[in-house]
Amino acid sequence: MPTNKLDQLRQMTTVVADTGDLDAIKAYGPVDATTNPSLLLKAAALPGYEPLVRDALAAAATSSSDAETRLSQASERLAVAVGCEILQHIPGRVSTEVSARVSFDRDAIVEAARRIIALYADAGVGADRVLIKTASTWAGIEAARLLEREGIQCNLTLLFGFAQAVACADAGVTLISPFVGRIFDWYKAKTGRESFPPLEDPGVLSVTRIFNYYKTHGYDTIVMGASFRNAGQVTALAGCDRLTISPQLLAELEADEGPLERALDASAPGDADDRQALDETAFLWQMNEDAMATDKLSEGIRNFYSDERRLIETLAALG
What we know:
Elements: H1 5-10, E1 14-17, H2 22-28, E2 32-34, H3 37-44, H4 50-60, H5 67-87, E3 94-97, H6 106-122, E4 130-135, H7 138-149, E5 154-159, H8 162-170, E6 175-178, H9 180-191, H10 202-217, E7 222-225, H11 231-235, E8 242-245, H12 247-255, H13 280-289, H14 291-318
Parallel strand pairs: 1-2, 1-8, 2-3, 3-4, 4-5, 5-6, 6-7, 7-8
Helix pairs in contact: 3-14, 4-5, 5-14, 6-7, 8-10, 9-10
């Protein structure tokens, strides 16, 4: 019988590691793993990844006469190399993110996704073990619609608003990553409150609403809560399809031997919104009306691109 909250959580939710640190992945044995530019920047500084950094730089060295292009390609190759390393230690899939710079360009997202899948194929990894991550902009969602039809599975990230979730489901996206902690951050700043009870937490309520909508209306898109600030947010979503959790919170859950009750149930979802279908105009209007989602989406893209640039600068210094 499971004795700690992490083991109990695994009985009702697929646990995903929100890290590129192989030691943490080995320690907690998640089914899947997810990375992003911020996590790759941290991973690139780990001694164990130094050979991968060197190999990525060498492979990109002759790809273009333009130094910026070479470094961008080295960054992409490093992301795939880290993904390949992670896949040796998990049974499921790894998420690899396209450049945040193309978040508003559908065709550029599709092109980048195809390159990433080709790099994985060159390394002997099939598309069935990879999720392409891109921001939940209208362009990102429409790119995912095209990619899913090609058999390239997608993880739509930086998801904060209900309109984003509705559009992703209609597009047939494999998985979405609603960001619990960043929603919490926004409401904390706006209200001046330092904390919320887990079942009143705005991020928890957002994921619960999406989960109930998907399960009530029979969507196959997987809901994976992400970006947690505390263990209470995690346990308040026990029963969600998947939860991607940092090593620090995995350790906290593993150390807690208290009981854990299911909060979400796909077979008996709670009250749900009526089914919707959004075109681009309706999507953009609903996003405009949701100040939190608009603020956090823009901020998230800027921050991911900032870390992407820092990673490129790190590669430039090594190259």
